[in-house]
Design a protein that fits this description.
By secondary structure, the protein is of the alpha/beta class. It folds into two domains: 157 residues, Urease, subunit C, domain 1; 328 residues, TIM Barrel, CATH 3.20.20. Helices cover 34% and strands 16% of the residues. The protein is built from 17 helices and 18 strands. The strands form four sheets. The protein has a seven-stranded parallel sheet with strand order 9-10-11-12-13-14-15. Helix 6 links the parallel strand 13 and strand 14. The radius of gyration is 23 Å and the shape is globular.
Length: 494
């Protein structure tokens, strides 16, 4: 057998040739490898994953029709057939991944992440994240303005913003926003449609609806986006969240935003007039004081249960900002792919200090943490009332690690009440249910061959998703150990 470094270089060269064609829904490979020890195969040969327990993640993780001794047949980057091993004949010459005693799940989807460096991409792949949705922000605003063109890389789906007054979603920088409400000219339906058509033609897959979008504008955006295959993510202030649910927004993002729906009317009005300034305080204060059993909480939860709108709370943001009993991100193995300077407001590598929390007085820190835990309880209440969830890491905000952050998010979803299977569905097939991404998120015929083989059972504890044996991206087995070894060697040299 050739040396590890030679194998890894050959794989990377092959993958680079493949990806240079463009990141479409299908990844073709010239060279692929089976699980360790790694062996080179012809790209024309099918791949078979044999003997593992195939985890069923349909119906938001409520279905339990697992296949204990399964075979998954892959050809040309797609799943060709799945079923019990006794019913599927593995073709002669097929590459074999022996999954006996292991557990097979779809590749993970991070619904709000970033690709800033090759290290980010490697960290995602190492942790089994095969799809990332990157929400792009207007120039000069917080968030991501660009995506690093990594090779190799998870499949990257791009999203853009749209606003009520600015087509690219640039918010007002006046406080409060009264001047914008009264004096600036709103975008017309024609302007909104033109923006959506442009984004769809450029290959964007989603729209983040800005804080200053009005109800009639939201109706136009949702209708026209869906007509062009774009998903809609809501983060509103001028429009209420109950209205957005009724209008058919696919997902409400960030719990600190959508939980304002349970505020008293006057608190939400204060929030909506200055959501990124002092006006946010009464809105957030109302949430922190909300009774979990109040009629407003129940009404919002029941509306979510009866709708197709999912919640994307990004629990990791507050958990890392406010130190909500989560591990130091630097303790995770994925941190080996990332430099401190590449993260936003990172937790102290050695001290474990949380910069945002530390910037406040001890009394304020206590109230921030109490409110943040209360927000988790609110999301737990929405879950109990029937809301559906999508997992997203928010990486690299507050030092959230690419790849590792999604595992942390699934743990937090389990902490608020989701079963391990439901938490796993939130990072896989729920994206099919809520976003219509039927080419991924589930292991079935004709979907992308993005697959993760686990040594431990994720049905018992979501932490098992970190016990990874094999990651397959578009039918190509990722050389995880070699990637991490190469990164360590690179760090030692530099």
């Amino acid at each position: 057998m050739r040396s590890t470094s030679t194998v890894c270089i050959a794989w990377l060269l092959s993958f680079t040739l493949v990806m240079a064609v463009g990141q479409k829904d299908e990844v073709q490979a010239q060279i692929a490898h089976s699980s360790p020890p790694m062996t080179e195969f012809s790209g024309d040969a099918p791949l078979a994953i044999v003997g593992g327990t195939l985890i069923d993640l349909r119906d938001y993780g409520r279905s339990t029709e697992d296949i204990e001794n399964s075979t998954i047949l892959i050809r040309n980057g797609r799943i060709e057939r799945t079923g019990e091993a006794k019913d599927i004949l593995v073709p002669r010459g097929a590459r074999i991944v022996d999954a006996k005693g292991a557990f097979v799940i779809p590749g993970l989807i991070d619904g709000f992440g970033s690709i800033r460096t090759q290290g980010f991409a490697d960290a995602y792949l190492y942790e089994g994240v095969t799809t990332i949705y990157v929400q792009l922000s207007p120039s000069g605003e917080d968030g991501e303005q660009k995506i690093f063109r990594a090779r190799p890389s998870p499949d990257v789906l791009r999203g853009a913003m749209i606003g009520g007054y600015s087509v690219d979603g640039t918010p007002s920088h006046d406080h409060p926003w009264t001047s914008r409400r009264l004096n600036e000219k709103r975008l017309s339906s024609e302007q909104l449609i033109q923006r959506i058509e442009q984004l769809a033609s450029q290959g964007h897959r989603g729209l983040l609806i800005g804080l200053d979008v009005w109800p009639d504008q939201l109706d136009t955006i949702v209708r026209e986006a869906h007509a062009r295959g774009l998903v809609t993510l809501g983060e509103m202030a001028f429009t209420s969240y109950p209205y957005a649910i009724r209008a058919g927004v696919d997902s409400l993002i960030r719990s600190d935003r959508y939980q304002t729906s349970i505020d008293l009317a006057q608190d939400f009005l204060a929030y909506s007039d200055d959501p990124e300034g002092p006006g946010g305080a009464p809105g957030y204060r109302g949430v922190c004081m909300a009774d979990l059993l109040s009629p407003s909480v129940a009404a919002f939860g029941h509306q979510l249960q009866a709708s197709r709108t999912a919640l994307m709370p990004i629990l990791s943001i507050e958990a890392n900002a406010d130190d909500l009993n989560v591990p130091n991100p630097w303790a995770h193995r994925a941190s080996g792919f990332v430099q401190e300077s590449e993260l936003d407001d990172p937790v102290g590598r050695k001290t474990g200090e949380h910069p945002y929390l530390k910037s406040h007085s001890p009394e304020k820190q206590k109230s921030l943490r109490e409110c943040a835990f209360h927000r988790e309880d609110l999301d737990g209440r929405f879950y109990a009332l029937g809301a559906h969830f999508l997992a997203a890491s928010g990486s690299p905000a507050f030092g959230i690690m690419p790849g590792a952050g999604l595992h942390g998010e699934m743990k937090l979803l389990q902490r608020i009440g989701l079963s391990p299977r439901e938490a796993l569905a939130a990072a896989t097939n729920n994206y099919s249910n809520s976003f219509g991404w039927h080419d991924r998120g589930l292991i079935e015929k004709n979907r992308r061959a993005d697959i993760v083989v686990l040594r431990s059972d994720p049905r018992k504890d979501i932490e098992a998703t970190e016990d990874i044996e094999t990651v397959i991206l578009g039918g190509v087995v990722i050389p995880r150990n070699e990637m991490l070894d190469q990164r360590r060697k690179h760090s030692e040299v530099h």
